[in-house]
Amino acid sequence: MHYIGKKGFTSVPQRTKRTGRAVNLGQLSSMIEKLIDEKKAQLDGQKVVLDLKQLGFTRLLGGGSISRPIRVTVDHCSESALEKIKVAGGETILPPAPTSATTTTTK
User: Fold this and answer.
1) pTM over cut 0.85
2) 42-95 to CATH, choices 3.90.550.10, 3.40.50.150, 3.50.30.20, 3.100.10.10
3) How far is Cα 25 from Cα 8, in angstroms, rounded to an integer?
4) Residue 1: pLDDT above 60?
C-alpha cells in the first residue's frame, strides 16, 4: 500500500492563524464606565472615545448592543458592529486600506 503526501492530519485550530484579540460590542458596552473611571477612555461631549488597540483588542464584533454613542479606533470591525455603532450615534475609525504597491522594473 502506497501513501501519497503527509501522514496524519492537522486539526482545525492548528490551521487557523488568528492574531490579536476580539471583543463583542455588548462586552465593550458593559466595560465603558470602568474604562472611563480608569482613564482608559475619554468623554468628548456625549461620545465616549476609545482606542481598542491600547486596550489589547484588534477586532470589534457585533455581538450584543450598545446604547451610548462611542468613537472607537480599531484595526478590524464587523459590518454588524459598524451598523450598531452608527445607530447609537457613534463612529468607527479604521486604519486606511493598504494600497497595492506597484513595482517597476527597468530593463
Assistant:
1) no
2) 3.100.10.10
3) 40
4) no
